[in-house]
Amino acid sequence: MHRTSVLLMVSLAFAAANAQETQIPALAQRPYVDKLNGFSLRPPAQAVRIREKSASLLVRWEQRDAATGAIAWTFSVSRFEQANADLTLDQYAAALAQNLRQAEGFEVESTQLIERCGKKSIMIQGLTAKPLRQWRRQEWVLVNHDGVLLFEIVGPVTMRDRLGQLAESIMASAAFLDPEVELARQRESIDRGMALLKEIDEGRIRGSIESAPQWFTMRLKGKPIGWAVQMERVATRDKSSGLELRMGTILTLPDGSRSQKQVIFVSFDGRVEHWSDRLLLTANGNTTLISEKGFRQDEAILCSGRQGEQTWEQQKAMPPGMLERDVIQQVERNMPQASPDQKAAAIKSMLITVQDFYLSRATGMILPRLMDLSSLQAYSFAVYNTRINDFELRTFTILGKSSIDLNGAKVSAVHLTDVSAGGESAPADWWLDEGGRMLRLSTDDGFVMESAPQEDVFNQDPRARQAIDDLMK
Fold it and tell me: How far apart are CA 449 and CA 464, in angstroms?
């Protein structure tokens, strides 16, 4: 299934169902990893990651008040260059506190020198300037001789004890990585992805197509919430033959129901790509249509869509280099004394074009069937994310053989993880049969999708009997 779209449907409802919780949520089971800046941590499980960056801000999560919708508290990570690298740690801590007082009117209550995962760290706590008084805890971690990571939580004064406990839990989960090592590993997985894409031809795609509909049931925290069906066939678009997938999904969730139809196509040569997505949300007697259509043309993505009465259009050219900003930062950091020509040559040698490892939506849906599942390796690809109108890294990692309980029987499976670097969709665990067909997909928030016999789905929801006819319309 096209997991990003399905998981977004579920996550919206899951967040709504948990918005009434008054306690600080537990941490996510899976860490957030920033390889370029060299850290990982487990963020608050139900806080929302906000996609905004600046010269210093790397990532931010926020929790909103369920009653008012206002931001209750935030946790963020930023990076700064250590301007006073010649100072002792005591002197640097005093300079930081003094700068916060003078520049921001921050009322510093305490400054403490600690060690975090072998790194020297400065913890500063206090209150923000009037009139909006908020409690603020900062932890400045010296990750190298001139670089500092700032981990900061800000929220109501009345929540200072709970937010302090939350911040300490997050920081206890943190680890600091060697960016050079991590980026080298990432490049290796990208190289594997590029090599795999070069091996995929018309014969392999035709050989992977399933002739019969594939049925799935879905659960959220152990409770049945719906079903899905996927159909595959050879089709023709824009005078090009290729793979077409059609998916239908029906979900019944605490906040309403969702009905979705997706059609995805890619030509065998990979040059033609189309997709359409039609989602009906029903809640409190009201139905909202969310639709999207997209295609690839002349090395650019063009999309249009509708949500209720609002329409939108967007396009994104395939950039000449993937992660170009990260590469430039890496070269500037590691070659500060190099000449402009030397830096330009280093950047050029490290850049990878998106076209080299771009993974179409349709190919991504059947990718495990095209992989060597005995390789126990990671494969990374560039994928297009409509929600941010940009490309991001998606990595499949084969973990090896295991067994799962499925439809009342113990079955052998291959375990694979599926992680998108942008974080728009939850990391997923796949369990596959030996041919790469999906047996189970699960995420950390309790969502599970499992392969199921057709009759089981029909018995769960009689509407499923009409699904095949509806999909072919």
Answer: 16
**320: preceding bond cis by omega (within 30 degrees):** no
The Cα 389–Cα 401 span in angstroms is 36
Structure tokens at 242: 């290729």
The candidate with the shortest Cα–Cα distance to 432, out of 417, 416, 447, is: 416
pTM equals: 0.80
Task: Give the integer Cα–Cα distance in Å for 133 and 68.
Answer: 19
The answer to whether 265 touches 235, Cβ cutoff 8 Å, is yes
Q: What is the mean pLDDT of residues 29-38?
A: 85
DSSP, res 179? H
- Residue 37 DSSP label: T
Q: State in words which class domain 39-176 has.
A: alpha beta
- Alpha carbon distance 62, 60 (integer Å): 7
pLDDT > 80? residue 62 = yes
Asked whether residue 11 carries a pLDDT value surpassing 50, the answer given is no
Average pLDDT along the chain: 87
Most confident of 104-108, 129-133, 149-153, 314-318: 149-153
Q: What does each C-alpha distance from 472 to 211, 244, 404, 445, 448 come to in angstroms?
A: 14, 11, 33, 33, 26
Task: In whole angstroms, give the CA distance from residue 343 to residue 377.
Answer: 31
- Give the separation between CA 396 and CA 256, rounded to whole angstroms: 32
| 400 pLDDT higher than 50 | yes
Where are any strands of DSSP class E within 339-433?
378-385, 390-406, 409-420, 428-432
From CA 52, how far away is CA 49, in angstroms rounded? 9
Helix, strand, coil percentages (3-state) for the chain, rounded to 5, are 25, 45, 30
Looking at residue 26, its pLDDT comes to 87
**Per-residue pLDDT for 108 more than 80?**
yes
Phi first, then psi: what are they for 463, rounded to 5°?
Answer: -65, -20
- Residue extents of the structural domains in the chain: 39-176, 183-318+353-471
Give the count of alpha carbons within 13 A of 457, CB side only: 27
φ, ψ dihedrals at 178, nearest 5°: -90, 110
Phi, psi of 56 (to 5 degrees): -115, -35
Amino acid 20: pLDDT: 39
Q: Quick check: 235 pLDDT over 80?
A: yes
Question: What is the DSSP secondary structure assignment for residue 268, as one 8-state letter?
Answer: T
Query: How far is residue 144's CA from residue 124's CA, in Å, rounded to a whole number?
Result: 20
β-pair partners for 224: 219
